[in-house]
Specification:
Two copies of one chain form a homodimer. By secondary structure, chain A is mainly alpha-helical. Chain A has a single domain (34-249), classed as Ferritin, core subunit, four-helix bundle (Ferritin). In chain A, 72% of the residues lie in helices and 2% in strands. Chain A has helices spanning 30-33, 37-66, 71-97, 102-119, 125-147, 152-161, 167-181, 184-210, 212-218, 229-249, and strands spanning 4-5, 11-12. In chain A, strands 1-2 form a two-stranded antiparallel sheet. In chain A, helix 4 runs antiparallel to helix 8 and helix 5 packs across helix 8 (184-210). Chain A is globular. Chains A and B meet through helix 2, helix 3 and helix 4 of A and helix 2, helix 3 and helix 4 of B. Chains A, B: It comes from Kitasatospora gansuensis. Chains A, B: Residues 38-221 form the Ferritin-like domain. Chains A, B: InterPro entries: Ferritin-like (IPR012347), Ferritin-like_SF (IPR009078), Ferritin_actino (IPR059125).
């Protein structure tokens, strides 16, 4: 991947991510772990949230494609949307494979995600790009952090669907061009980035509060190694720091 | 594919198509034929129209997905949209392969297609389904009719991207269910189907009038075997008849 230098000269590519420095050892495969009903419920919650997130990302990217300033940008957004759909399909198929009903598993996450989208409807092409970039990156960071603590099969799936769909570099390039052409755009988009992060945190807290299985997974209730409240705090710090670095890479103050 | 019986008892599946009864013999590969600049221009026009049509179909299906009554329907529409995008990608890559600029080749068809979509904006989920089904089928019929007269390479590509993306049976099932639940829906959708066919013909005539290369291809100006005005008339008859049969299969008078 092409890398770009940040203002301080540090090489910085578009897909800055936060990854826990010491991934814990494998906890075994799905076949073994899923015998624990709490663990199973937690993983289904996680996959349901991820699946609806992909379907929702498909919709938002397709919507943004309508506002693309030209055919090249329109096709680029359509491609990303199509990739998100492929990820959805992988998650859907896995849910069926483990005997879950994809619709039932996704349903609890529809309203929180739609609330996030209602609160953060982009007013133009650039706000849409920043939202796609920032939103996707925060979600990817979160899933990668959680993935390393899951059984091997679930981890591989989550990492696979969290892979970069080409969003990042595309958005960074377009946003930087727009700020170069009109520096005032930077101030507006910086505010927008803060609002996105705030709403994302607010809806995540709501989901964690409402979904016992998922919060047990996060705070170690499902017997996961060393994933206690201190670790959760550290994880959110890493995600916030990665967000700050990404905003800086765009030339935006977070 | 599952087949369903029409009112008169004829077995009828959702993907009724009109295919010329006597496909003409091969006219050779692209390498040979494209030496003729008129032929090359005509094929680029055709691929440009088809490529923008796929991108536009992606957008419309993604838009319709927003109005889906549930997650299963939403995901079904997203899958079809994603398939349309894959077709677009194939056409885009082929245009690049033969040294054409995809954007330049697609641009003449943006306005006619957008005009069609402006004139036929569905007001609800069912109108969107009928539009996707009818619009896709008419376009497929047209391209399959033309394809058999093209060089082997272009023909294979056109037939490949005109393959059913799963639209047909899905739309037929949903529309029939809706008419069964409320027969008055049938009258409204029958009117809608006529309007769609009328607008499609009107925009097609506009394109043919404005694009010399494409109309030469249709009336044999590019030295294609036996594709004269009489044949063109017959082709439009076959397409209209297939449309009538499809509407009947839906339980709608055309």
């Amino acid at each position: 991947m092409e890398t770009q230098a940040a203002d301080d000269g540090t090489p910085l590519d578009a897909s800055v991510t936060s990854v826990a420095s010491d991934p814990p050892a494998s906890i075994g495969g799905w076949d073994v772990r899923s015998a624990d009903p709490d663990y199973r419920a937690a993983v289904l919650d996680l996959l349901g949230a991820l699946a609806y997130g992909e379907l929702s990302a498909f919709e938002r990217l397709a919507e943004d494609a309508k506002f693309a300033p030209g055919l090249v940008d329109k096709a680029a957004l359509a491609k990303m949307a199509s990739n998100e759909y492929q990820h959805y399909q992988q998650l859907h198929d896995r849910l069926v494979e483990v005997g879950a009903d994809p619709t039932a598993v996704m349903t609890p996450f529809v309203e929180p995600l739609e609330a996030f989208h209602r609160m953060t409807a982009p007013s133009d092409w650039l706000e849409g790009l920043v939202k796609a970039y920032v939103g996707d990156a925060i979600a990817t960071d979160f899933y990668r952090e959680v993935a390393v603590r899951l059984d091997d099969d679930t981890r591989d799936l989550v990492l696979s669907v969290s892979s970069d769909t080409g969003h990042a570099q595309f958005a960074v390039d377009r946003i930087r061009q727009a700020i170069e052409a009109d520096p005032r755009v930077g101030g507006r988009l910086a505010l927008w980035g803060r609002r996105l992060m705030g709403e994302a945190l607010s809806q995540s807290q709501r989901v964690v509060a409402e979904r016992d299985a998922l919060s047990n997974l996060l705070v170690g209730g499902a017997d996961l190694q060393g994933f206690d409240l201190v670790e959760v705090g550290k994880m959110f710090n890493r995600i916030t720091e990665a967000h700050t670095r990404r905003m800086a890479a765009l030339g935006l103050a977070s």
